[in-house]
Please model this.
Amino acid sequence: MNEASPRPSLSRHGAGAQFLETVAAWILGFLWILPLIYAFWTAFHPSEFSTRFELLAPLTLDNFRRAWEAAPFARYFLNSFMLVTMVLAAQLVLCTLAGYAFARFEFPGKEIAFILVLLQLMIMPDVLIVENYTTMSRLGILDSIPAIGLPYMASAFGIFLLRQTFKTVPRELDEAARVEGASALQILWKVYVPLARPVYLAYGLVSVSFHWNNFLWPLIVTNSVSSRPVTVGLQVFSSGDQGIDWSVITAATIMTSAPLLVAFLLFQRQFVQSFMRAGIR
Amino acid sequence: MRNAWRLLAAACASAALAVAAQVEVTFYYPVAVGGPITRIVDQMAADFEKENPSIKVKPVYAGTYQETLVKALTAHKSGTPPTTAVLLSTDMFTLIDEEAIVPFDGVDTSAYYKAFMANSQTGGKTWGIPFQRSTIVMYWNKELFSEAGLDPNRAPANWNEVLQYAQKLTKRDASGAVTQWGVQIPSTAFPYWLFQALTTPNGVELMNQAGTETYFDKPEVIEALQYWVDLGRKHKVMASGTIEWGTTPKDFFEKKTAMMWTTTGNLTNVRNNAKFDFGVAMLPEKKRRGSPTGGGNFYVFKKASREQQAAAVKFANWMTAPERAAQWGIDTGYVAVRADAWATPKMQEYVKGFPVAAVARDQLQFAVAELSTHDNQRVTKALNDGIQAAMTGTKTPEQAMKDAQAEATRILRSYK
Amino acid sequence: MSRGAIHGWLLLLPAFALLALFTHWPVLGTIWDSFHATPKGGRPAPWVGLENYQVMMADEVFWKSLWNNLWYALGTVPVSIALAILMALWVNSAMRGRTWLRMAFFTPTILPMIAVANIWLFFFTPQYGLLEQVLRPFGIASRNWLGNPDTALACVTLVAIWKEAGFFMIFYLAALQSIPPSLAEAAALEGASRGYYFRRVVFPLLMPTTLFVMVNAVINSVRLVDHIFVMTRGGPNNATSLLLFHVYQVGFSFWDTGYAAALTLVLLVVLATVAIGQFVFLDKRVHYQ
Model:
């Protein structure tokens, strides 16, 4: 199934209706991207122009300088990066093993275990903030990056996805490898994992964008600069005595979203394609 | 030869002892104003260490006031609190109830302004030392005053004048929509604080010194709320509904309002961003002049060791010494917390060049404590909700305050 | 147990251990803590039975938050799904500029909510905010959008829809791409209109995706509260207070962990009910290929 196979036009109303529809779509698209456009406008212009949109207004990089100085963003970036990397790595390993178990093995209690796993689809760690906070406190790892990541590392979504994917792998491949004397783990690595690559890519992209932008749980569980991710750092601009300065906030927003934005712009096609090949329906 | 070894051993031992004797003080601090505050604090910590080589200060930037409190309390509950922190003066009762802090024993607090000590002492003990404090002041746009035919150098002095001036200053366009409001008193984020800017001039306090009783349903309190609500809903010189705290300074810069009531912490911000001549005045009086204080104190935590606590007290005293209090005031716009800070040459020069900086200080003689009780966040929320209900017309001021008082009484019952 | 079974459990164990520790155990812990009062100082928590629940029944803010969350969910779930389908249909068609459209619709997903909330705050600011600037030429009077309890929740809902619709669009896009074009050709040959083709062929085939997306949308209506912190802080007078926001306030602002546990339990019950309801109800109407 290639990407650009548009549906044949079934319209009976001809070009007029199609034109109107295109205009409607473009308007919606424009509305959707308006906040980002506003962010770019305001970040590169001085404060006076954050509320008026005069085309000939002077450009400036001062807002970025002020945003950078207002909080230790370099450290926050590092923390966010370490967080999403750590979480993704753990998720890939854990969910692959678990998905493989559910897809290809029979063991007592399998049904119940699967339901218990699916429970996390609905009851995400985000709603269990009070209890998980106490757990982290007892484990003694409060205010650290692993503390942010641990509740998410066993992802029910990932397990579910990989189980579905592994189930579609033809058993003949499995048996052929077994005949050649491969162990279960070797079969997993040599046969199943390569075939699930688009799923891994899609899942990875979802996971990274989710954890890069996660706010509430990191807010609660981190105290100090050495573990705080970028989203929590951004909050400092929201509650000062001096009120909101949109120039600095949008500069900070662009700074912190830049990695994801750039990655998305470059890998847009792969992103969508991997979702499609993953057969997520 | 053996002597050389002995000497070396002795040197190593004393070095080790010196390092071992170094006391570490972790210092959580919030940032509530713009500017490179973290750099300034780091520099101050370094200066302190130079003068006190046996103490190592580790400043930890902890976010907003609210976040810093959350951080400090969660750290305390998990057994590793900071040695010292700057937290809101109103958090005192909460910190005492959580058994998180120790009082400042034997520290001379007579140098600090009495108004700031009001939120720092209870039960005969001093629990906090003022560091970055503020009051509410009224800023006005002199240009817009002239345009409306008012004397640009005279601010309204009482509630009646505020109303009169605001009526002249509210402009409408052809279709009747307001293009400029007369006055703006924000009612989100800290509605209770701005409320105190009205109740204090009306001669009434909202709570007792022990933090166990509130007086939200006193007639003067309801009267103050009625005045606030009427500005918007009856006289239409202020926007109706709740007014956003965060956008109020911007509204002032955009000339959408001719007067605004907000913290002195905004002074530097207004100076930098207002493209017009502006004035700063004490809050207008009704029965008297008055304003609540605001801002943060130094607290010392209980679970720190004795040496750490002593070092923290030393640090707090050093940070609030006259020269540093003056410098902090100039850098941040907060009110320098002691009279002798204002007498330093640097501060006098600053005030000469920027006279409105002294308004907040002059108001201190009329200032009262900020609302603070046990279970402070809950009680404050009850009052905030009541104020917002009145501002949006959901409840009458009388009903709103009666309900808030009932709720506060229920919450404080177990503390009496 | 056979060797296969042992291998199965071993493979599952690491993930399951973490799930047990951070999902199952906390659920039990929540139930347990909700029957105790909050510990103060160094003293342990006393058993209080149903007292936290009695407080909850009398707590106006709780009921308001629950009610608000219901409206919030009713606003975000159907609208974001409908928009997602519409967007997917557009992007999948031969429309001009569809690559750009796809990027525009998906961008909100990448931006952190806590940051965009500030931008939306500007959009809704009275008098000089973007919405006001756009509406003024049409003669629509200035409104205090976020400061008025009648409009505040709607504004917050709008921001959530904006954030989610593009993410769901991707799933629908993938599903649309897997519909064989022969179906569309056959429908065209038989003279079916676009609306008919969509209603009778495409939409039923999208049902599995809709089920999946709906589950996600409902979960998000519970967990997406970041923008509340910036835009309204739950106000005015709790008009935009949502359950999870209230849990945060009670647990980490008032430090009342016992009551926070009781509130969390309500949240869990709501989620579980919705999950069961959705699977039971929609499972019957799903067409699998």
Notes: The mean pLDDT of chain C is 87. Chain C touches chain A through 105 residues (CB under 8 Å). Residues 132 and 140 of chain C are 8 Å apart (CA to CA). The longest helix of chain C spans residues 60-92.
